[in-house]
Amino acid sequence: MLSPSPQNQQDGRACADDGHDKCGQGQRVRSPRAVRAPDRDRAGKLHRGDSQLVQRSDTLAPGRGPRSTKLCVVTDRTRRAMTEPIEAIAVGDPRRITEDILSPRFLAMPYASRPRVEVAARPRDRLADIAQRAADHLGFGRESRKRPPSLFGFWRPEDEGAQIAISSLMAVVAEDGLLSWTAPASKVRYREIVRTVDAGALHGDRRRLYFGYQPPLGDGVLPDWQFFLDALETAKQVAEYLAAFGGAAGVLHYFAQRLGPAHSGLRTGSATWRRRGADPFAFDRWLADGSWRPEQLARVLGLSPEETKAVLWVFGFAESPDGTWRPSADPEAELLRVLGKLILNTGYQQGTAEQRRSAVERRLREFGDTGRVQPFDWKELDWLNLGDD
Q1: Confidence of residue 18 (pLDDT cuts 50, 70, 90)
Q2: Where are the chain's structural domains?
Q3: 3-state helix, strand and coil shares in percent for the chain, rounded to the nearest 5
Q4: What pTM did the predictor assign?
């Protein structure tokens, strides 16, 4: 019986970037999960605990025996790194690229009605590679190569009957353990998705990938972190003013008091997130996609648990009885969700500081008078005078 080489005994690891495992002195040994049945029959398998020792000739010539033989240790870690099947779901059609797939009609389409196919995903694959593989199976591969998909996301249990979440930017956990938004979603590799899921920073099923085709839209400018921080300071000042001279003074005074430390925590984190590719719009879209435990979220944000709670509160989350923070979980959180949308979209549409202040004051006054929050409506932005300099 062959015995594993010292290097293999020490490593117990393999690389499956291209469906093969690298073993021993640089020779390639095909993984038993990545080969066809006839190849598996030729591989001698020896089981040892939770690892699988695979004896395999690295080269075979017609009519001749193997030139050399290696023994490769395939561990549980290696198995997780191998190719796995995922379901790729098309949103939109590259043959009709003029359609706006971000409209409610497309985003709320029932899951069963969407074109989808099961394809293989390898650790080194970019999401665009997986999408192209799916497009080839679905019959529009040629058109997809001309107009590649730009929007990606993952299926969530709440998608049925609601609008799905897809974006051109995807937050992934980098090798240093912190979140990064530096690569377009299309260039994110599947192994980065696996790492992000393992860190608890991706809300969705990694084995159900949405890929969407979208024509260029809009000419707005996304607000930066300084804009967002200034807007929060404005909201604090307005709340203090209304608390002093308006109704429901207690509610708005408490709200203004909480905005102070939350603003400080956000300033601490935003400097890092800016360097790692996130603007407030991208950060909000990622954060709103799930429910979070501060202790777990703090690790990937680079903050303390208390700072993380302050950031969650600013973006419209509230703590549930089980310790999980959920979006719009109480009236105050819903107010902050609406204020955030107003702030980000007045910035995107280049509204003035006075227009932003008026929109925030109207919402805070309504909350102070009634204790209720009306859902955000895009018509609230119709009054913006976009011609002002």
Answers
A1: very low
A2: 6-81, 84-212, 225-381
A3: 45, 20, 35
A4: 0.70
